[in-house]
Write a structure and sequence with these properties.
Blueprint: E1 8-17, E2 21-33, E3 36-47, H1 55-77
Length: about 100
């Protein structure tokens, strides 16, 4: 039988962020090719005053922070984290040599 098995892993956290309450944070790690993976973050407020803010507004702020977290993670994973210390980065999404 021919085919491809795709492995997926994850981690679910309950983050406490005073004064806005708590958030559910899910890290998803999925194989994207030989020796490569894709990491994503899904996050939203689940408790406290942060839940009163409209979801669309919350997600705008959350997505900026999570994009930066993934960019920094990519730099570390690719061994390029010291490059980031040399000054501001060029605009655009993180580059990846591994897919």
């Amino acid at each position: 039988m021919a085919g491809r098995i795709q492995y997926s892993f994850g981690l679910i956290l309950q983050a406490k962020g005073w004064p806005l309450g708590e958030a559910r944070v899910e890290l998803r790690i999925t194989e994207s090719g030989p020796g490569a993976c894709e990491v994503s973050i899904v996050e939203d407020a689940v408790k406290g005053p942060g839940t009163v803010v409209p979801r669309r507004v919350r997600q705008g702020a959350i997505s900026v922070r999570n994009h930066e977290a993934l960019r920094r993670l990519a730099l570390i994973a690719e061994g390029r984290h010291k490059e980031d210390l040399n000054g501001p980065r060029a605009a655009g999404p993180p580059r990846s040599r591994h897919g």
